[in-house]
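Bug: token stream looks shifted between consecutive jobs. Job 1:
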Amino acid sequence: MKKKVISMMMAGAMVVSMTACGGSDSGSTTAAAGSSAAAETTVAAGSSAAAETTAAAADSSEAKNDADAYTNLEPVELILADSAAKGAAGSEFDLLLSEKVGEITGGKLTIDAHVNGDLGNDTDILRQMQSGDIDMVGSQVAPIVSFVPEIAIFDLPMVFATVDGDTIDQVLNGDSDTHKALNAAFENAGFHLLGFLQNATFRLTTSNSNLEKLEDFKGLQIRTMENSNHMAFWTAIGAEPTPLAWAEVYFALQSGTITAEENAADTVVGANLNEVQKYLAETNHILYVNQISINKDSWDALDPAYQAALEQAVTEAIAEMREQLIMIDADNKQLLQDNGMILITYDKSFYEEVLAIDGVKELYSQIDTDTNGLASTLQKELGVNQ
């Protein structure tokens, strides 16, 4: 910026000199104009430089104020547990969140993250959080139902199947009636909800039979989680759901005890199910979603500055991980196809046909009753099945 000002001042001086040599009566006027232009340029440049200096000082002051917000606070460490395997989206989110909290607070608020089931399975760690033995839990939503009945809205089969990730995020994390109701439900259980991580990726169905049409699911012996709503859905579309410990699934598929299972693509890859399954069907029956929450007493004990920092870290971590979820899903689907599986996709009419089944309608009604009408609220805000 200094070079520009000097150049313009020199140009003004040259105009004065050249006019004086010519001896014209207009010389004094031209010189005055040149001097005025140079002066105005100098003033403008000075004002601009001053403005930039002021802005830089303001930014510096703001950064200092941000740091000062934690200076007089006692350091706090929160213990977070997750059963997600190392490298899975859930555990990667936990670690990213831990990193961001430390960065935001200059290391004054930290999270000691234990993933891979180090502190127990989902039910174990949720009980530990409820009792206050640990502070935070990251998990998929299914295990939460025993503690927060309203979470059963995520059991509504295919309710998210045709909705984009941004719309789902707004309903689950934004200023929606669904979000407000879930917040209250978590509080009633002794938890404080921090957020949901998803990006319209889903649990899929793998099988050894071609599942192109709805009638192909009739008699399908499929392993499911031990969740009554999930089992009711598969029964309604004609399949034969069988709860089975995850450790037994590969061998059960290999031996033919069961012929299908349902999971997210990365889980299918991790378990090498492409070795014992031929088809990968995008049934999209359950949203692949993780929640992050904190013990309510632990939350209330945090200074408001720490609470704001934790919320900021969650928001930033969710935003970063959402893009990764899309890549993880796409990459794993491609890997399964590269390893010999055949991908089956469906258009909107398939989901409409499933949702029109009487047994599925009855399940929707039951879940709406179990969640005190929250299932209907969710559907309305998603803009589906109304």
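Job 2, same session, no restart:
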Amino acid sequence: MRSNYSGLQIAIHWLVFLLVIVTYCAMEFRGFAPRDWRPYFNIVHVSCGITILVLMIARLLVRLKSPTPPIVPKPSPMLTGLAHLGHLIIYLLFIALPILMYNRGGNWIAFGLSMPHAAEANFDLVDMLKEYHVTLAMFGYYVIALHALAALAHHYFFKDNTLLRMMPKKRV
């Protein structure tokens, strides 16, 4: 059995990481941009969100097909359970966030293209879904921080190979 994830799994993981940073930054920094630039920040946010959705589904399919490399030394059942719960939350979060904003009720642009939308939107529903989207996105900051802290704890405190399994191989 492999001691680390496949190159594809590692690439998807780190690409999603970078896209999440860009997606969050697009929303956090758009208020600092001139008003006429703000639609471009929205396009970046939406385009990255859709890409994250596709990559998370691909990552999930690859993960279901490929065995997970073992953690050495083996963690306690409680830590293993918490890790599974954490990964479930990450998958659900980054799949749900883009889906929540699909029915926007008006023209929206992703990848520079006008996207399909509902002919008539229920604006109360759109407002509610947007609130959920924002709340889950804020929750995402905590999930990301816990994920990173858990990886660092495994590396420095538990001294296992959890973090190393997701790192690209060094070229010799």
